[in-house]
Specification:
It is built from 20 helices and 10 strands. The protein is an alpha/beta fold. It folds into 3 domains: 311 residues, ABC transporter type 1, transmembrane domain (ABC transporter transmembrane region fold), CATH 1.20.1560.10; 147 residues, Rossmann fold, CATH 3.40.50; 73 residues, P-loop containing nucleotide triphosphate hydrolases (Rossmann fold, 3-Layer(aba) Sandwich). The strands form 2 sheets. The chain has a 6-stranded mixed beta sheet, sandwiched between helices. Helix 18 links the parallel strand 7 and strand 8.
């Protein structure tokens, strides 16, 4: 736990030191009045108490109370500033770190789990740390000071009281172990609930159409029940041990009273010391009881903090030599690649796409077409072999530099919950308004945007849900046109469009690919007849390559796919004779 906290503190060491110092001072001013109370008791039992001296002690205690109040306010403010500064730094670090990870990281981990780390786990740290650390620091320091007063008064009785602490600590270690085990299960159940609920919302149309709403949607119902059970266990199971620890403190206090009365009866303990232990001795345990509860809570916070640190330790994509290409041809040299350490999706692939040419990738589903475009964009790094742009291995380039060289238009388009204008501007944030409008015009966006209430400044909705698939695709192309990158990746850009939209998209794509190095993934072979070269993939290997005419003449896999598409043309519903 301490290791995790130090990892967090490194982001704002000065603020942490200031906060800890204030907590220690606050703890001291909580405990020091007990020393003056001890002096008052001794003065009262001195046989000839001096009124002026007693009043001086009282006035000093009032002054200490005022200082304690000031320190309490100052400590609370500083502690909260520190906590929210630390959590802000954590979120910023997480955000910057996530954008430097390969896309493979997001494929390997549940997106809901990553979202839970950034939102809920940091929030857990924020909430618990802000209240718990302050209490514990003050409580521990106050206990030390009160212990010193009691040891000075009578070391025998003080040791009886302090003997309870190691026994309580053993009980808390047991509670700590239970919280650790149950806390991890609770976090897992929480993440499953979030993931299942997101699945439920995103698939609500299909769920309703098949009558799977409510409890009939079993996976969400199970996740909610598991989360409820895990939450109950996390709260209930450590509770009895904390109560037992509190009872141990009470029993040792009663034991101390019995021993103190015996000492008093034997004449080895003064009346003033007896009164002191009856009053101040009980106060020794008040801070400890705070620590007992807060430590168990802090252990749960440590689980969240460990998850945050685990994400921050995921290896980032980095550049070796930080080179920048001068040309924009794309070369694969003996590239093999597999997802999640599984069998290779690509097997010893080699090819070259000359600068300012168009290459098409075709083949059955699962043959590795999209994987090739992902390796070019450095969403993943090749397991074996090398991917080069202009003679430079992409692993020797900063990821941001690779992204700057590439524009992408995929079948699945994501638009931000912003205006159409700002979604296009995302391609090049420093572009002028005229440049955005020009890109929108070339991509056929203006044809439908001017019909909307606010034109280009109409909202696209979350994920572009206010627009049709064809409209989103045109905005995506406008974004790519504005970016004007030298390499263009097109992945099934027209696969699921109606004929009218497909015409618009084809016109927009013609503008996009002018004087660019273009790699196209296509199922409709008629759209890539004029490609400079066509690669035919099968089971992750390169089956054929050449121009359309070369491949038709070769009478291989490409020729088979071409004939099938020419024969099918479309599907029909056969008429059924109802008799």
């Amino acid at each position: 736990m301490i290791k995790n906290l130090f990892f967090t503190f490194k982001t704002s060491p000065g603020l942490v030191r200031k906060s800890i110092l204030l907590e220690l001072l606050h703890g001291a001013f909580i405990a020091v009045p007990a020393g003056f109370l001890l002096l008052i008791i001794r003065e009262l039992f001195s046989g000839n108490p001096v009124q002026s001296r007693l009043w001086n002690y009282i006035w000093i205690m009032i002054g200490l109370l005022i200082i304690q109040l000031f320190l309490a306010v100052k400590t609370i403010v500083t502690s909260n500033i520190m906590t929210y500064q630390l959590s802000t730094n954590l979120r910023v670090r997480l955000g910057n770190h996530l954008q430097r990870l390969s896309m493979g990281t997001f494929k390997q981990r549940d997106p809901g789990d990553l979202a839970s780390v950034v939102l809920q786990d940091v929030a857990n740290f924020e909430m618990i740390f802000g209240h718990t650390i302050a209490n514990m620091a003050s409580a521990i320091f106050a206990t030390l000071i009160i212990s010193v007063f009691l040891l000075i008064t009578d070391w025998r009785l003080a040791l009886v009281l302090l003997a309870a602490l190691p026994i309580c600590w053993l009980v808390i270690i047991g509670a700590d172990y239970l919280v650790s085990r149950q806390g991890e299960k609770h976090v897992l159940a929480r993440n499953q609930t979030g993931a299942r609920f997101l699945e439920y919302v995103q698939g609500i149309r299909h769920i309703k159409s098949f009558g799977m709403t409510g409890k009939r949607f079993v996976s969400l119902d199970k996740a909610l029940n598991d989360f409820r059970k895990a939450s109950i266990r996390t709260e209930v199971i450590p509770g009895p041990l904390v109560i037992i620890a509190g009872m141990i403190l009470e029993l040792f206090f009663l034991l101390m009273i019995g021993i103190a009365i015996t000492f008093f009866a034997q004449g080895s303990l003064a009346a003033s010391a007896l009164i002191t232990f009856l009053i101040i001795g009980y106060r020794l345990y008040e801070p400890i009881k705070i620590v007992l509860v807060d430590y168990v809570i802090l252990r749960y916070m440590n689980i969240s903090l460990s998850r945050v640190i685990d994400v921050l330790r995921i290896k980032e994509q980095t550049a070796g030599k930080k080179l920048v290409p001068e040309k924009f041809d794309v070369v694969f040299e003996n590239v093999s690649f597999g997802y999640h350490q599984e069998k290779n999706v690509l097997k010893n692939i080699s090819f070259r796409v000359p600068e300012n040419s168009l290459m098409a990738l075709v083949g059955p589903s699962g043959s590795g077409k999209t994987t090739i475009t992902s390796l070019v964009a450095r969403f993943w790094d090749a397991g074996q072999g090398s991917v080069k742009i202009g003679g430079v291995d992409v692993k020797d380039m900063e990821p941001a530099e690779v992204y700057a060289l590439i524009s992408e238009v995929f079948q699945e388009v994501y638009l931000f919950d912003d205006t159409i204008f700002n979604n296009i501007l995302f391609g090049r944030p420093d572009a002028t308004e005229d440049e955005v409008i020009q890109a929108a015009d070339l991509a056929q966006v203006l044809d439908f945007a001017w019909e909307l209430p606010n034109g280009l400044h109409s909202k696209a909705g979350e994920g572009g849900n206010q627009l049709s698939g064809g409209q989103k695709q045109r905005i995506s192309i406008a974004r790519a046109l504005l970016k004007d990158a030298p390499i263009v990746l097109l992945d099934e850009a027209t696969a699921s469009l109606d004929p009218e939209n497909e015409i618009y998209i084809q016109q927009a794509i013609q503008e996009l690919v002018k004087n660019k190095t273009v790699i196209v993934v296509a199922h409709k072979l008629t759209t890539i007849k004029n490609a400079n070269q066509i690669l035919v993939l099968k089971d992750g290997a390169l089956a054929e390559e050449g121009t359309h005419q070369d491949l038709i003449t070769a009478n291989g896999l490409y020729h088979q796919l071409w004939n099938i598409q020419q024969q099918v043309g479309g599907w029909k519903i056969k008429r059924i004779d109802l008799g």
